Amino acid sequence: MSAPNKSYDPVEVEALKPEEIERVQKEALDAFAAADSLEALQEAKVAHTGGTSPLALANREIGALPPQAKAAAGKLVGQARAAVGRGLAARQAELEAERDARVLVEEAVDVTLPYDRRQAGARHPLTTLSERIEDVFVAMGYEVAEGPEIEAEWFNFDALNIGPDHPARGTQDTFFVQGADAKAEDSGVVLRTHTSPVQIRSMLDREPPVYVICPGRVYRSDELDATHTPVFNQVELLAIDEGLTMADLKGTLDHMVQALFGDDMKTRLRPNFFPFTEPSAEMDMVCYVCRGESVGNPDRPCRTCSSEGWIELGGCGMVNPKVLVACGVDPEKYSGFAFGFGIERMLMFRHNVEDMRDMVEGDVRFTRPFGMEI
């Protein structure tokens, strides 16, 4: 910027020439007219009215003029800037009116529609499946029994013939509840690791014969992944009566899987060991996908059972006499059988659910397809 100079001729200042002022004014108005959105108009506004715009730079040159030339130059620049401001305001009003009219069309609300358009959810499939299983056994004469989820170690372990040194009683498998004056592992109180304590309470509260089914939530120290969760649901069954045998157990298992998976389903028992049953067995059912036809058939492989024809469902066996004695039941007169399985695992089998995490995340997109089951 040059210093004041009385002999300076304003006509020689390029930015202040009338034709130059008219040109930049026209450029500004044309840019405003070409703007097709408020965002584009904002960019044109900065370019033609901002601190570095041609008119702003011309206005700065006025300070360098001699006093006798400032008035005319100031009037010329001022008129041009006022015209540009009017053009900007007019175009902004037009674009805002267009935007408001478009919003009224695109975001129109039909006030005659029902006010509550939120889609209804559904009961969780674990709940409906648990009740379906309960109905199967209630129809057979069983009673639904429940118990506390915070349980004494005696009910959860000792009464079930699970000794003090059993690995399941370690902190790596069991959640211990903190006591008031003792460490958690010394409190004698746990979050139940199975629903078997309900069987113990049922035998203590009832005189034989006892026929109960025990559904409920249990807790174990597992990481949450596609096939494991630290909080899950189990269903266990207990029958105590005179003369019960493994044949009665096998018939009960067959009826259960037929009621849940189809009339052509059957089960098998494989020898195993559980402290609270003797003899004990793992319960398998025929693969509900291939019905065993994939075994030895490379032309028809089955991913569900790995072409083995069977799917492991849970554990079972005849109630150990030591458990009967702990509950005051005479093992010379009465015998019984029990079995248990996870409802989440049953749900994965029955409805081809691939990831157990979907069951616990609370997303209605998972529960809604199941709807209601009658």
The order of strands across the largest sheet is 1-4-5-9-8-7-6
Name the average pLDDT. 85
CA-to-CA gap between the ends?
Answer: 89 Å
Helix content: 25-40%
Order of helices and strands: HHHHHEEHEHEEHEEEHEHH
Structural class: alpha+beta
Number of strands: 9
Summary tags:
elongated, alpha+beta, seven-stranded mixed sheet, 11 helices, two-stranded antiparallel sheet, 374 residues
Task: Give an overview in words.
By secondary structure, the protein is of the alpha+beta class. It contains eleven helices and nine strands. It has a seven-stranded mixed sheet, with helices on both faces. A hairpin with a 2-residue loop joins strand 6 (267-274) and strand 7 (277-286). Helix 1 (18-34) runs antiparallel to helix 2 and helix 1 (18-34) runs parallel beside helix 4 (67-106). The model has no long low-confidence stretch (mean pLDDT 85).
Give the helices and strands, then pairings:
Blueprint: H1 18-34, H2 38-49, H3 54-61, H4 67-106, H5 125-138, E1 143-144, E2 150-152, H6 153-156, E3 189-191, H7 196-205, E4 210-219, E5 231-241, H8 246-261, E6 267-274, E7 277-286, E8 310-319, H9 321-326, E9 335-342, H10 343-351, H11 364-367
Parallel strand pairs: 1-4
Antiparallel strand pairs: 2-3, 4-5, 5-9, 6-7, 7-8, 8-9
How would you sum up this structure in a few lines?
With 374 residues, the protein is an alpha+beta fold. It is built from 11 helices and 9 strands.
